[in-house]
Design a protein that fits this description.
With about 200 residues, this protein is α/β, with parallel strands linked by helices. The chain is about 30% helix and about 30% strand. The two termini are about 25 Å apart. Bound molecules: guanosine-5'-monophosphate (5GP).
Length: about 200
């Protein structure tokens, strides 16, 4: 998605060779038009699959799952990281280790909102080590729903997530695929023949 790549080049802050900060437009302050456009892209990529539900994990996946749900005209569900007092019924759950926070959460989805008969698209902001998305894949499989695929807004292709998902026979579609990065520089996978793109230095 060209527009997304352009925003990453212009407004992304590369904190290290593995961490990209996109707080200015994706996951702290959110550019609502761009978020809605990601939803349309996911709907286009998975058109014809008769998706009935979009699944994500709180918090940074929510705006993209909502956008995909709007584009596909289906509900979205987000897995919770902490059990709320209002959560009473049976849940599906899976452990997820957070790449950015260094903690492991037991994520849960109420069994009323996912089950056999559903065709599920999983969406998240980043695909990095794949831990978050694999946790959601396990939840979908536990529920008896059919997994149609995974959509990531940004994939860091140099990390192992895509390979781990594909080894589980999961179709992965990412809107921006970063081949490599370091402060001041980002390369997208389709940019093999291009020189480095300059991005804003660490903030
Ligand atoms: P994974 O489980 O694939 O390692 O990472 C998934 C989660 O970690 C994403 O949902 C995202 O919130 C966070 N994450 C992973 N890498 C990055 C990164 O480079 N920048 C930011 N802002 N978040 C990241």
């Amino acid at each position: 998605m060209k527009e997304l790549e352009e925003r990453i080049r212009q407004e992304g802050a590369i904190l290290s060779e593995t961490v990209l900060k996109v707080d200015a437009f994706l996951n702290h302050q959110v550019d609502t038009e761009l978020a809605l456009a990601t939803g349309r892209e996911f709907a286009r990529a998975f058109a014809g699959e008769k998706i009935t539900k979009v699944l994500t994990i709180e918090a940074s996946g929510i705006q993209f799952a909502m956008a995909a749900g709007i584009a596909l005209q289906v509900p979205f569900v987000y897995a919770k990281k902490k059990k709320a007092v209002t959560q009473s019924g049976s849940v599906y759950s899976a452990p997820v280790h957070s790449f950015t926070r260094g903690e492991t959460y037991q994520v849960t989805v109420d069994q009323r909102y996912l089950g056999p008969g559903d065709k599920v698209l999983i969406v998240d902001d980043f695909l990095a080590t794949g831990a978050a998305l694999i946790g959601l894949v396990d939840i979908v499989r536990e529920s008896g729903a059919e997994l149609i695929g995974v959509g990531a807004v940004i994939e860091k292709s140099f990390q192992e997530g895509r390979g781990l998902l594909e080894a589980k026979n999961v179709r992965v579609h990412s809107l921006a695929r970063i081949e490599s990065m370091k402060p001041g520089e980002v390369h997208f996978t389709q940019d093999h023949n291009e020189s480095s793109h300059r991005v804003k230095e660490k903030v």
